[in-house]
TrEMBL record, chain A:
Pfam families in alphabetical order: BPD_transp_1 (PF00528), OppC_N (PF12911)
GO biological process: transmembrane transport
Alphabetical list of InterPro entries matching this protein: BP-dependent_transpt_permease, MetI-like, MetI-like_sf, OppC_N
Stated family: Belongs to the binding-protein-dependent transport system permease family.
CDD domains (alphabetical): TM_PBP2 (cd06261)
Name used for this protein in its record: ABC transporter permease
TrEMBL record, chain B:
Annotated compartments: Cell membrane
Gene Ontology terms: cellular component: plasma membrane
PANTHER family, per the entry: DIPEPTIDE TRANSPORT ATP-BINDING PROTEIN DPPD, OLIGOPEPTIDE TRANSPORT ATP-BINDING PROTEIN APPD
Protein name: ABC transporter ATP-binding protein
One of the GO BP terms on file: peptide transport
CDD domains per UniProt: ABC_NikE_OppD_transporters (cd03257)
GO MF annotation: an example: ATP binding
Provenance organism: Streptomyces coryli
Start and end residues of each ABC transporter domain: 25-274
Main localization category: membrane
Family stated for the protein in its record: Belongs to the ABC transporter superfamily.
UniProtKB/TrEMBL annotation, chain C:
GO biological process per UniProt: peptide transport; transmembrane transport
Family statement drawn from the similarity comment of this UniProt entry: Belongs to the ABC transporter superfamily.
InterPro entries: AAA+_ATPase, ABC_transp_ATP-bind, ABC_transporter-like_ATP-bd, ABC_transporter-like_CS, Oligopep_ABC_C, P-loop_NTPase
Entry keyword set: ATP-binding, Nucleotide-binding, Transport
Descriptive protein name: Dipeptide ABC transporter ATP-binding protein
SMART domains: AAA
Presence of keyword Nucleotide-binding: yes
Pfam families per the UniProt record, alphabetical: ABC_tran (PF00005), oligo_HPY (PF08352)
Highest taxon, organism lineage: Bacteria
Spans annotated as Disordered: 1-24
Record bears the keyword Manganese: no
Residue intervals of the ABC transporter domain: 54-306
């Protein structure tokens, strides 16, 4: 070209300068910070977060909310059996004459422990196995996937009944363990799928071309990009595990007395519901609100993290 | 913004819509509401196309060329999209003021669209013949048998070999070039007046690209259709179009008949684009480069949107948005169909 | 050319010619390294300009087609690459063009050892890297790097730019001492025309062209001798393409790089390449210097390919002849007998179906001064000018 303005221009300084000005006005954004921003704006998240925060405080420090402990001597007075709510005892008394309010407060701890513990364990087991199956492929994947399918075929409640009947004592830890055994396949599936869709990405190939080993590829490239759906699932599952624990306890094979569980309290109260509704009402209310809060949280997290909705 | 068609076409009297342009877009504005703010995707686009004419809309990603097309077709997602201003006249009638029922009658029957990605535009669970025949069943009440016969006929017309045997095949059983032919057949089914082709050959190989473009041009001649070709490929544009509208940051920066544009561009952006294509006589030299990056649509620079990257920018460019000036030759005679949205179009043209 | 099937087996048959116009595909400078140590020594020695740094001989990659879920049995093979040979010289750019499915990207993956070849050899400085593993392979990786097509998927979205460009140093810690890495990363950012202060940003904060610069910086980090570029600009806008091509040319001079430049855009390939190979359905159809291929193509496929390229000049298109091929590229799982191009060729005769043309200088041109004197795999090779202007 004869045009003097058409002389080759090296892009180096100009390019970056232009981009600089643009970038300054731009906020720093990544999936996580975008998600965070979406979450804080989402009223569903805010409501559920407040409830869950309250629950956590309840379970860590129940003594803040009640001066008495359900485990202390003389807590239950049979003379108070099934007394309706009155001043100082807002939820009334149960069949044994124990204070329903105090027991409900202390019951939160077990629910929260089962939920968080199970969710954490399923994420670990299912996540790690899913990562291995997805990355390794071949026969490892085939074997693990078939095992997953077998576990998938076991209904949660039936499996829970079966496995828990093998234990003499039911406490939160045995319940969490059994729920984990039955629950990891869902995480496995999600993780394996996410890994499979990620491992053929160009940046993984680029890392291989640089000579990166399997460990580096798994931890630096595949996992960070595959973890989001697992987090979503685990959050939603939290609520489901809490309700599963309550159900198992209700059936008498989960958490057992003298441990406190909302499911147990509901079981004790159900036959007397017509005459003494307060015994059933409060633990059920707490259970429902808790499960709902975790499921709402999961929903909000999914909306914020799911790339398909972005 | 001035109408580009002041120069391009003689505006047709409203009473005789058939003699005027087939489709006329006037001062169209489209916005998107995003987390980052309002993205101004289309900012006052005007163009027109007549029967038998090919208008190429040339632009890079984010120039608003596809959004304009989607708005014409009425397939823009609203929200987040929002048409804030403008008219789209089809034979003199404003599409934007029509009821959705009326628009649906025009869409497909009168104005059809061809997409870049034929695989995702075709339904994978129905056979190709069924999807082609559906057009006749739905719009013309044809029987099943009749529809199938017409589908085979259509596939023959877009030169799909062994159409009779392949009419029951599913989209994934066809190659990319063949799928694009099926897309064209589908668009052609109801013999529309106007076809909008959005990057129809971008996903195809060059040898197949040539086949598909030739088919499209041939069908256009045969049916005297208007064609709006949306592309970023300067080569494809030079091959098939009659007139060109170059878009940048949601605006039309230059319009010209195809030969004129390549010979003497009147906008620095067009000129830069043409110069940055590797040429035979420049082997071994550095390529000409338009420095910098296209603007983000949420933050379009004041004045001329191209000004931060323009080698000719002056103070006036930073303050005043240039209208689409009529481009005149050295003797001050208007050059038909030419316009440039540059304060210094004259200098660019002569330089 | 029966020798083509058996590349020079003995070590150091002959020294390399000084930049031959068409590489002789029979001569291979081969070193037989007994140990990893000696292989690494060979691999890490500096190459001289003009020396063939990479020699590919009869490279074959077949992907098996299987049926069944648990017990898989092979029912066929996709012959993605089916006997490809070429040389790449130090400091030169070899362009590889061809349509999708011709196997050009598979060649890139084979050279990067991302796929194992079914057969054939890849000699890097005379060492067959197709057989290497472990430390010697790692040494090869330092010297052969890659730039990817899609700048949106080739950068890990969860890593900062600093981590992305610094990762090569973490994998090959001997290249840069730990304390030095950040500074080196910033240097590379500057080299590719990005602001060194952006080291802590994430890829999505950059535009497509800037991301491709980041990808190039990552490819440069280990100071390689060869960079394999798989469609490095085809995902970019026209005005950005030119910026990246200029950058790549600048870097080639600065670091004496050899490029294997794979692309489907013929004008870009011509601009950047010294020599060009045209691939069709897993085979090399024609190879020669840019002038030989573009101005004096002798293979009908090359001629059709060139004539199909839309020329960004409406005046030229009107008076040039266009060869419009019929049909699509056949499936590489079931390629035609004889010459693979014969099903779409305008010159095909019975001979083409029976006898496979080998890549060699056609008899009619051999010995002549004409630029048509270059290797072309066609029984009926003849010159035909298709690019006007």
């Amino acid at each position: 070209m004869t045009d003097p303005t058409a002389a080759p221009t090296m892009p180096a300084p100009g390019t970056t300068d232009g981009a600089d000005e643009q970038a300054k006005s731009e906020r720093v954004a990544s999936l996580w910070s975008d998600a965070r921003r979406d979450l804080v704006r989402n009223p569903i998240f805010l409501i559920s977060a407040v409830i869950i925060l309250g629950l956590i405080v309840l379970s860590v420090a129940p003594q803040l909310f009640t001066e008495r402990s359900p485990y202390e001597k003389g807590f239950c007075q049979l003379s108070n059996s099934m007394e309706p709510p009155k001043s100082g005892h807002p939820f009334g008394y149960d069949v044994q004459g124990c204070d329903v309010y105090t027991r409900t407060i202390y019951g939160a701890r077990n629910s929260v422990i089962v939920g968080i513990l199970t969710s954490a364990m399923t994420s670990m087991v299912g996540g790690v196995l899913g990562l291995i199956a997805g990355l390794r492929g071949g026969w490892v994947d085939t074997v693990l996937s078939r095992i997953t399918e077998i576990f998938f075929a076991i209904p949660l409640m039936l499996g829970g009944l079966l496995f828990l009947s093998m234990f003499d004592t039911g406490n939160v830890y045995t319940v969490a363990l059994i729920l984990m055994v039955l629950g990891w396949p869902s995480v496995f599936r999600i993780m394996r799928g996410a890994v499979l869709s990620n491992k053929h990405n160009d940046y993984v190939i680029a890392a291989r071309a640089l000579g990166a080993g399997t460990w580096r590829i798994a931890t630096r490239h595949v996992l960070p990009n595959a973890i989001a759906p697992v987090i979503v699932l685990s959050t939603i599952n939290l609520g489901i595990y809490i309700s599963a624990e309550a159900a198992l306890s209700y059936l008498g094979i989960g958490v057992q007395s003298p441990n406190i569980s909302w499911g147990l309290m509901i079981a004790d109260a159900q036959s007397r519901f017509l005459n003494h509704p307060h015994m059933l009402l409060y633990p059920s209310l707490f259970l429902s609100v808790t499960v709902l809060a975790f499921i709402m949280l999961g929903d909000a997290v999914r909306d914020a993290l799911d790339p398909k909705l972005r | 913004m001035t109408l580009i068609d002041k120069a391009a076409d003689l505006p047709a009297p409203r009473s005789e819509p058939d003699s005027g342009p087939l489709l006329e877009v006037r001062d169209l504005h489209v916005e998107f509401r995003t987390n980052e703010g309002v993205a101004k995707a289309v900012n006052g686009v005007s163009y027109s196309v007549s029967a038998g004419e090919t208008l190429a809309v040339l632009g890079e990603s984010g120039s608003g060329k596809s959004v304009t097309a989607q708005t014409i077709m009425g397939i823009l997602d609203i929200p987040p999209g929002k048409i804030t201003k403008g008219e789209i006249l089809y034979r003199g009638q404003d599409l934007l003021k029509m009821s959705s029922e009326q628009r649906r009658k025009i869409r497909g029957r009168k104005i059809a669209m061809i997409f870049q990605d034929a695989l995702s535009a075709l339904n994978p669970v129905f056979s190709v013949g069924y999807q082609l025949g559906e057009m006749y069943r739905k719009h013309q009440g044809a029987s099943r048998k009749e529809a199938k016969a017409r589908a085979i006929e259509l596939m023959d017309r877009v030169r799909i070999p062994a159409a009779k045997q392949r009419v029951g095949d599913y989209p994934h059983q066809f190659s990319g070039g063949m799928r694009q032919r099926i897309m064209i057949a589908m668009a052609m089914a109801l013999e529309p007046d106007l076809i909008i082709a959005d990057e129809p050959t971008t996903a195809l190989d060059v040898t197949v690209q040539a086949q598909v473009m030739e088919l499209l041009a041939e069908l256009q001649r045969e049916y005297n259709m208007g064609l709006i070709l949306i592309t970023h490929d300067m080569g494809v544009v030079a091959d098939v179009s009659d007139k060109i509208a170059v878009m940048y940051a949601g605006r039309i920066v230059e319009t010209a008949p195809v030969h004129e544009l390549y010979r003497r561009p009147a906008h620095p952006y067009t000129k830069g684009l043409l110069n940055s294509i590797p040429r035979l006589d420049q082997k071994g030299q550095e390529l000409y480069v338009i420095k910098g990056l296209p603007p983000t649509l949420t933050n379009i620079p004041p004045g001329c949107a191209f000004q931060p990257r323009c080698p000719m920018a002056q103070d006036v460019c930073r303050t005043d948005i240039p209208p689409l000036y009529e481009v005149k030759d050295a003797d001050d005679r208007a050059m038909p169909g030419r316009g440039s949205a540059c304060h210094f179009w004259k200098e660019t043209l002569d330089g | 050319m029966a020798e083509l099937d058996k590349p020079g087996g003995g070590p150091n048959d002959q020294p390399a010619d000084a930049v031959p116009e068409t590489p002789s595909l029979t001569k291979v400078e081969q070193v037989d390294a007994a140990t990893d140590e000696s292989a690494i020594a060979v691999i890490d020695r500096p190459a001289e300009r003009g020396e063939p740094i990479l020699q590919v001989r009869n490279l074959v990659k077949h992907f098996p087609l299987t049926q069944g879920i648990v017990f898989k049995r092979q029912v066929g093979a996709v012959r993605a690459v089916d006997g490809v040979s070429f040389d790449l010289h130090q400091g030169e750019t070899l362009g590889i063009v061809g349509e999708s499915g011709c196997g050009k990207s598979t060649v890139a993956k084979l050279l990067m050892k991302l796929e194992e070849p079914t057969s054939g050899e890849i000699f890097y400085k005379g060492e067959d890297i197709a057989r290497l593993s472990g430390r010697a392979l790692k040494a090869v990786r330092r010297n052969i790097q890659m730039v990817f097509q899609d700048p949106y998927t080739s950068l890990n979205p969860r890593m900062t730019v600093g981590d992305i460009i610094g990762e090569p140093f973490e994998i090959h810690p001997e290249v840069a001492p730990k304390g030095d890495r950040r500074r080196k990363v910033q240097e590379f950012l500057e080299t590719v025309g990005l602001n060194p202060e952006h080291i802590n940003r994430y890829p999505h904060q950059f535009s497509g062209g800037q991301r491709q610069r980041i990808g190039i910086a990552r490819g440069l980090a280990l100071n390689p001798e060869i960079i394999i570029c798989d469609e490095p600009v085809s995902a970019l806008d026209v005005s950005i393409q030119a910026q990246v091509i200029n950058l790549m040319e600048k870097l080639q001079d600065e670091f004496t790089l050899s490029y294997l430049f794979i692309a489907h855009d013929l004008s870009v390939v011509r601009h950047i390449s010294d020599r060009i190979g045209v691939m069709y359905l897993g085979r090399m159809a024609e190879i020669g210097t840019d002038r030989q291929i573009y101005d004096h193509p002798t293979h009908p496929y090359t001629q059709a390919l060139l004539s199909a390229v839309p020329v960004p000049d409406p005046d030229v298109r009107e008076d040039r002849e266009r060869i419009i091929l019929t049909g699509d590229v056949p499936s590489p799982a079931n390629p035609p007998s004889g010459c693979r191009f014969r099903t779409r060729c305008f010159k095909a005769q019975d001979k083409c179906a029976e006898e496979e043309p080998l890549l060699a200088v056609p008899a009619v041109f051999s010995g002549s001064d004409s630029p048509a004197n270059h290797e072309s795999a066609c029984h009926f090779a003849e010159e035909k000018s298709v690019l006007a202007g």
